[in-house]
Amino acid sequence: MREDVEFATEDGVALRGWLYRPDESGGPFPVIVMAHGFSATKEMYLDDFAEFFSAAGFAVLAYDNRNLGASDGEPRGEIDPWQQVRDYRTAITWVSARPGIDASRVGVWGSSYSGGHVLVVAAQDRRVGCVVSQVPLISGYDNSRRLVRADHLAGLRAAFDADRAARYAGQPPAMIPVCYTDDPAEPCALPTADTHDFFLGPILERATTWRNEVTLRSVEMFTEYEPGDYLPRISPTPLMMVVAAGDHLTVSDLSLAAYGRANEPKRLLVLPVGHFEAYVGDAFRVSAPAQRDWFLMHLSKR
Hints:
Distance between the termini: 26 Å
Strand content: 15-25%
Number of strands: 10
Strand order of the largest sheet: 1-2-4-3-5-6-9-10
CATH class: Alpha Beta
Helix content: 25-40%
CATH architecture: 3-Layer(aba) Sandwich
Shape: globular
Number of helices: 10
Radius of gyration: 18 Å
Order of helices and strands: EEEHEHEHEHHEHEHHEHEH
Largest sheet: 8 strands, mixed
Structural class: alpha/beta
């Protein structure tokens, strides 16, 4: 059973999403909190994971990040990783107080950018009893240097500085496309061909609130964000990391190296696919059951 929900952040922004409850009596149920990655909205396959987990006996809260999708917040398209981390924690607080939810059994799930967020949340918030991090961002600094050509870095830094000066003078924040539209050389936040194919492909029929633009400041904050630094602090909370071996967006070698810095209990699942393929097809059919079983193992009643 899925219902539309809305809850307020501590600073009064309305976040909107879906709350799934198992189609069974009983409870209270363990709950999994999930949000999507950089600019993505909940219709971009979060529902598939949420429905799968709910069928296994979990309540699931899946919501749009602030400034994106169905959620409120200004400026539109602003992606502040630390604000999104705080909103995850607010989401835990809100859903834990819902009827039929067992607040002592909370899991968090994230993918791509939010795959980095849940590493931070799990390390900081001991209400979290289990975490799954799928194709995560590990290091904004290192990852951005894989995505941006070396001879373009100086120009990007100059654009950041010019935007900062303009905002200080009272102008609105500069905007940049998430992905290129026709020309692969077009400046954009995520300049890979599979990003273009994913965001501008058939998914748009489902994700009607997605927009191909974010603030330039969002890209600057991306380059400064280091969620992988929190990996050693997650223990004793159980961590599952799902890595796509062919991932060149949140590059797989950074994720695999970072996994070694996490302490037990932990589990690594490597999928023989690219970044966006982790959400669908055979990869989903392998990964979703493994993730479900990880949550079942660690969020069962004691």
